[in-house]
Specification:
Length: 440
């Protein structure tokens, strides 16, 4: 129940009386089933409303319908509408209820939605954006290796995400994965999926739609602009951070707050737009490093071709290639099911984190020795010395990963390593003695 206070003008001293107003138990405010696709209107808190189209599946027609509704609502300039956020098959509307009531908004949306054209008639502006891709980039490999060392050593996607992509899609070899990625034209359906300007995109041709599961649990670190697949979507990570997509390479920046350049327009510091088509071309790690240094300054030109995306043409291509598409999906589904069955047989279909602290981190420090302590809690990423090594003051003993940062543990005085009390992949607490040194 929701309670609304009612003023008592004749009795200003007394408190308000309370009127009980029934509250609907369902988040669904309305549902329309008599149009080309089902439309569901959901409440989102007190001042947001979510419009959802069709079933929860990958369907470019549904994305186009959400896009058309977004444009039409924006063009209508509804008083009280604060902002609009499009999703893959949905549209979220933030409104001021004192100027635009929920029921009024529902009525206007229904009226606008009924006037939208059919998907078969839709043509939207598009661009073909050619991006360099360092295949199996060393920084992507580092993210995989850290995950295997620190999070889940026996994960099915370790040590190579690309091999995992090959296996779960039933492809012959890793070269076949590479061929599919570089042949694909990835249609941008959303932006900001993971972080700043990050596209969520899917290949236009269903025969290029590689599918994967995501990391479980997620990575704690992903390099900026790593490229990967999650489900049937490709994503380019807009910034460094955690993540769960299966990585296959790295590209240039998706976001530029430094300055406008030919690729980054004033006021829009993101590279891609809805319905852009991303096509990758191969470069080496060294070439990508140079490109990444130059691109934010406008010194690395990106080839962009203006075009359009026609749903009618897309549907015609689907009909023409229906046999090959069905064969591809059948083979892919069989490989996916075989992979999941293997996980179950080997006990890899679930994961329980080992949060225990390395037990050997306890013990007295012998006379004539001193201990080096961890300054913060975290996972041991790398031990860079061995027992018996001589170290100087300031030398790194180990590197721990904490708060998405790599933090060195350094010796505060010179000595020789007598005992190491930590192991890669295990957890240490702040203040734990991680190494015992003989004083020199």
């Amino acid at each position: 129940m929701r309670f609304h206070p009612l003023a008592r003008p004749a009795d200003p001293v007394a408190g308000p009386v309370v009127q009980r107003v029934p509250e609907a138990s369902s988040p669904i405010l309305a549902r329309r089933t008599d149009g080309p696709v089902q439309v569901v209107y959901r409440r989102q808190g007190d001042d947001n409303l979510l419009v959802e189209f069709g079933d929860m599946r990958l369907d470019i027609a549904l994305r186009l319908r959400a896009h058309l509704l977004s444009q039409a609502v924006s063009d209508a300039k509804l008083p009280g509408l604060i902002d609009i956020t499009p999703g893959i098959r949905s549209l979220q509307l933030h409104y001021d209820g004192t100027r635009l009531t929920r029921m009024r908004l529902l009525g206007l949306l229904d009226e606008i939605e009924r006037a939208l054209p059919a998907a078969e008639d839709v043509v939207v502006p598009s661009r073909i954006v050619h991006l360099p891709l360092s295949w199996d980039d060393p920084d992507a490999q580092l993210a995989m290796r850290k995950y295997q060392d620190l999070v889940r050593p026996n994960a099915p996607w370790c040590p190579s995400n690309i091999e995992f992509i090959r296996r779960i899609n039933g492809l012959a070899d890793e070269a076949a994965v590479k061929s599919v990625v570089f042949d694909a034209s990835y249609l941008v359906l959303g932006l900001g999926d993971v972080y700043l300007g990050a596209p969520v995109a899917t290949p236009v041709d269903p025969r290029h739609r590689l599918v994967t599961t995501k990391y479980n649990p997620a990575r704690t670190w992903t390099p900026e602009n790593a490229v990967g697949i999650g489900g049937a979507y490709m994503c380019i990570y807009g910034m460094e951070g955690p993540g769960g997509y299966q990585l296959f390479g790295r590209t240039i920046q998706m976001w530029n707050t430094w300055r406008p350049t030919p690729e980054f327009r004033p006021g829009t510091p993101w590279l891609l737009r809805f319905f852009d088509q991303v096509r990758f071309f191969p470069v080496s790690h060294a070439e990508l490093t140079e490109a990444r240094a130059a691109f934010p300054h406008g010194a690395y030109p990106v080839r962009i071709e203006e075009t359009r995306f026609s749903y009618a043409d897309y549907a015609a291509d689907l009909a023409r290639d229906a046999g090959e598409i069905t064969a591809f999906k059948t083979r892919q589904q069989a490989a996916f099911e075989a992979e999941r069955a293997r996980w179950k047989a080997e006990g890899l279909d679930s994961f329980t984190a080992d949060d225990g602290v390395f037990a050997a981190a306890e013990g007295e420090i012998p006379e004539g020795c001193f201990g080096v302590c961890a300054t913060v809690p975290g996972n041991v990423w790398k031990v860079v010395v061995a027992e018996g090594d001589a170290v100087a003051a300031g030398d790194t003993i180990a590197i721990i990963e904490s708060m998405k940062m790599e933090i060195p543990i350094a010796a505060h005085a010179a000595g020789r390593i007598r005992e190491l009390r930590l192991q890669p992949g295990r957890i240490v607490r702040g203040g734990d003695v991680v190494a015992v040194l003989d004083a020199t």
